[in-house]
Amino acid sequence: MSEPHESEYHREPPAPAHDDLAPHLGRVHLSARHRGVDATTLGRLLLQLPQLLTSLAVVFLVSYAADALFGPPWWIPLGCWVLSGASAFHRPSERLLARRLYRLRYPTPEEDHKLRSAWRQVTARAGVDADTYQLWVEDSPGINAIAAAGHIVGVTSHSVRTLTPGRLAGVLAHELGHHVGGHAWASLLTHWYALPARIAWWLLRRLASRVDRVSVGVTAVVTGVLGAALFALATATYGLILLPLATPYLVAAVSRRAELRADAHAAGLGFAQQLMAVLHEDLDRAATARVSASAMGARFEEEGVMARLLASHPDAHTRLHHLRAHLDNGR
């Protein structure tokens, strides 16, 4: 979660501390199709399309060079790279990702009991088979959770240990919202398929940093030619060539909207109050930390505009505002 700030939300009473998870009564009706692609997932894929096409070009050039030098057909490594994204939905590959990339572990018996109890209440309300996803635990002192790949739902050990069943269910319902909207797999796949472009850009920067004996005249000519070419391309494409400069900010905005959609999914399942209680706890902890630091003479700097524009998560107050709107609309 983003760092919260103090506000009038502190005056709202928290959710009940005990017995705050009402059991789901009656039959559980499983939906034949519960996952889809929402607007934020489409937005992320469209914004990353130039980088993905660049990666495709890089892999094609490397594959073609390997074909010319060593003999294997260029389409074999290219095809393997294109198909490699399917491993995000392959259970053994997901387990490897969970352990190596996300540093998750299997829950202990006590953690598993508490997690599965809350998870089954969430999935019963959502009409989802609880066994579709695998629950993991991250050894971390904070309250957080993650939805990744095709079937990974991870929760920090501190969350499992300290949250009430209802609040834990609210956090899990939020992560289920990421899977339902397609946010989890889209985030992983865009990151994976953009890696060749990022590596190529890093290599170009390293090569450029080593060219330190170019005369001022040559530098001026090259700068002028590149500037003229960029101006011509910007004019011909009506400025679309400059879109990658704004992509990080647009991707961050889409990511923040995805978080609000996941909150809306949790609220739709009846966990708005529990999720708000978790956010209030986050606000209280941050306020206590600021008071303690101020007493020791430390200073807190306000987050700058650029940092807020690049934040992948909305601040706690924005989330609370939208959750409160869901509660008001449901009355």
From TrEMBL:
Lineage: superkingdom:
Bacteria
Assigned keywords, A-Z: Cell membrane, Hydrolase, Membrane, Metal-binding, Metalloprotease, Protease, Transmembrane, Transmembrane helix, Zinc
Which cofactors does the annotated protein need, by name? Zn(2+)
So where does this one cross the membrane? 45-66, 72-90, 214-232
Give the subcellular location.
Answer: Cell membrane
| Region ranges (Disordered) | 1-22
For this protein, the Enzyme Commission number is 3.4.24.-
* Chain ranges of the Peptidase M48 domain: 110-325
Q: Name one GO molecular function term.
A: metallopeptidase activity
Q: How does it sit in the membrane?
A: Multi-pass membrane protein
Q: How is the cofactor bound?
A: Binds 1 zinc ion per subunit.
Give the signal peptide as a residue range, or say none if absent: none
Q: Which family does it belong to?
A: Belongs to the peptidase M48 family.
Protein name as annotated: M48 family metalloprotease
Its ancestry begins with: Bacteria, Bacillati, Actinomycetota, Actinomycetes, Kitasatosporales
